[in-house]
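[Q] Does anyone have a clean structure-token version of this?
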Amino acid sequence: MTAATNAQRVLKNTAALYFRMIFLTGISLFTVRVVLQTLGAADYGLYGVVGGFVSVMGFFAGTLAHMSQRFFAVCLARQEWDKLRQVLSANLMLNAGTGAMLLLLAESVGLWFVTEKLQIPAGRELAVVAVYELSLATWFAGLMTTPFQAVLIAEENMSIYSLVAILEGIAKLLVVYLLLLSDADKLVTYAVLLCAVSFLIDGIYIWYCRRTYSYVRFHVCRDMEIYKEIFSFSGWNLIGALATLLRNPGINVIMNLFFGPVVNAARGIAFQINGVIASFAQNFMTAVDPQIIKTYAGQEMKPFQTLLQSASKMSFFLLLILILPFAWNVDYVFGLWLGEVPKYTSLFTVLVLTEALIDTLTEALSTGVQATGKIRVYQLIVGGMSLSIFPLAYLALTLWPDPVLPFLISIGMTAAMGMGRMVILKRLCPFLSFGAYVREVLLPAFMIAGLAAAWDGFLFSGAEGFIRLAVNCIGSTAFLLPLIWFVGLNDKERGVIRTLVRTKLHK
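[A] Here you go.
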């Protein structure tokens, strides 16, 4: 398959994911406002911190999903169908065993921590326990579904992946409607309905994969070499997963211990916005990740380097287009959207988005490392840096209880982790050019971000009405798009986009 064909497939899959994201963004913005107003800041913060605590177990799901995707993509690239069937069955067995052990831990130590250590308003103890148990059920169902989602991504079947997500968004709209009608405890009702939606969506993923792909059949895998290969790969990945866990939901827990559920509400809204905006760049990476893995598995080293550089730039620019106008007008947007805005929400959001922008610059390199399968040094160094954020944040809050400190520490460590990714991937792949990455990715990104931030801050900031907000967003985008086209993209990247546009117009 030619590089142009690969690029067109990536752009086609990205378009499908973007349609999904635009639809889900509107739903998310609406539902967050209604749920926040219906539950209140305290209950909304409680749901965020309890759900975040369940992510203490949930980080395994993310690790296993990335592991599955990598193995599936390599098998597909090499057309190793028998091994693909065995890897899928082995993944399902490992997920079930891991989930059972973690459920035992969650129902003992986890339940004790939630009931005895978290700051829970008087009279809300039973509701919090109910939310915790429902969140565990949702987590376990999602854990067992991760191999099927990984199949869709490895097969680059983004259309179905997007359609199911849109169905999930519609179901969550129904959840909000039923929540408004319900006379029962709103927090518990919200958790029950979200759990039901999760079970429905998980069932659809499993049904579709079994119906569409002949190798999606379960049997007991007895090949110990496959288990050894999976354990070797996933074992080191657990360091990075644990770091992610302590970096986000773990810090959410210590924020609750120091500042209570209202600050959790502000942090929860900030990460909700980050999830919506950053998903535009993440969708692009979801579309391009299988191609990165397959080009390395096929020993296509020049396309491998080109994909890494282009993916890094494009995901950064996609995020920058959305972040800049939002960040300069965040106070008006939150006032218009939420009405009553919890303290620190605007500042937390800007800091979280800044961190996401820095991380995006080198996120594709982590996929490059995963493609090599040699992740021990990467996880020890980069995962170790990420892991250090949690104790540093706790120590900083102990010495100076300011809720902004964990965000600043995380931003600094994210920049250091980006440098670590570059150095380690160069060590694993000597054929890659460090200078080319700096020249093709970092310099254009920093130049465009600096110019656009200065331009927007001078002309397109501080909206005080909807018309002014619209003018600011349009003006920011009108300046940034030509800058990206002429300065950020090289001739080859512009040519691929032109070819795709001409092909679509011709059709």
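[Q] Thanks! Anything notable?
[A] The CA atoms of residues 422 and 457 lie 31 Å apart.
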